[in-house]
Design brief:
Helix content is about 15%, strand content about 45%. It is globular. It has a 22-stranded antiparallel sheet that branches. The chain is of the alpha+beta class. It has 9 helices and 22 strands. Strand 20 and strand 21 form a beta hairpin.
Length: about 475
Amino acid sequence: MSSRYRIFLYLALVTSPLLAQNKQVLYDFTEIPQSLIINPGIETDFQWYAGIPLLSGLSGYGGSNGISVNDIFADDGLDINDKVRDRLVAGLTPRDEFSQNLQIELFNGGYRGFNPDIFYSFGAYVEMDNILYWPTDYALLAFEGNAGRLNQRFDLGDLKTRGSMVAVYHFGVNKKMNKKLTIGARAKLYSGIFDFNSTNNKGYLVNTQGQNNRLATTLSADLKLRSSGFGSLNNSDDQAQLTSAVLKRALFGGDLGVGADLGFTYKLNERTSITGSVLDLGFMYHSGDVYTYSLKGNATIEGIEINVIQELADLNRDFWQDLVDEVEELIPFETTNKGYVSFRPTKLNASFRHDFGKPIGSEKACDCGTLTTDSRRLKYANGVGVQLFAVNRPRGPQTALTGFYLRRFGRFMALKGTYTVDKFSSTNVGLGLNIQAGPINLYVIGDNLLSYQNIAASNYASFQLGLNIISWGKKK
């Protein structure tokens, strides 16, 4: 195997995986202001907060449920070509995925209005989200070809991929309706930097017994790849121009869209509550720098056919080009610049939580800005519960189930541990630490911690961290 192929394969396995789709440790971790991002209907108890720009929220995830880097590159005495063939090319199915997400907060803040039951939040972040389902039959064709596979249909619908990079600007309102119910909503404006998707492909490729030649190849294709934004990025000659192009598209100079988040918290009693949120109910219209590539039609060919007697006077003729022209006439490859609409990957969260132990009220020696009126729930030293997560994906909803335990140490520190079962792992242990030192709020979250002893052998890795300033004034 060439060194170039090794490098390409390594990048495919390492960089394709790095998404913070399911933030189960952060969800309902109400000490952290960023928990508002994944449920605008949480119960809030601070007067205001301000995230440190570019440091208040950084999160990333990488997942490959069917294979790890270690499966290919481990020093186990096996030939790497055999491992690629057996574990990657033939070992994965079209349900196996490579996905990545990276989210960086540009700024984030919130404040309580004149009505103490209403809390406003606002901010902006950049998110990159990509997913590729393993194209099994394409991989077989690329690795082995179809010459020795008579009558086997290669499914062209195996190709399903989607990705984007988008700047999101948002404003939310959180309202305490009564002692039991808190609701929230957030409006979003999307400014697209780049986008690509190819999810509705159909067709097949098959070899059958030929009449004039040994084999006849039939191609039936209905393929489409849509993209936006790549032209201006590719035309940037240096880093400065690339940065300028990205900033322009992030500041409403590219594709535009709108969306909304909705959420709630409902108290069944003083210690028990249920929550839920729906995120990214929205769409984008891609109109700038759009390229749509399509291949549609049917053709059956038997290779190059030469009648030597008839063609004797013209053997310099380019028979291969004739064959290419024939195929292109039957199955035309087209490029258009028509705009298109894409929908955001909508996410759903729901949880049940029961608190117990000693109530944690305000410390009299502290002038913290947290609300402790009777209209707001007391916090308790311990909490346990379960959370359900689902996200809309090209091959259907992707779900995860999490059990969690929350431990508070006064108002200074809180720890949250989680155990999650999803398509990537059934032994996903996560841990979140939140520290409140005066007005400084620091949080660090890690997921799938058992895999950290050998990241290369893991199918999944995730992290989140941030730094905020939380109100430290007179209580109301």
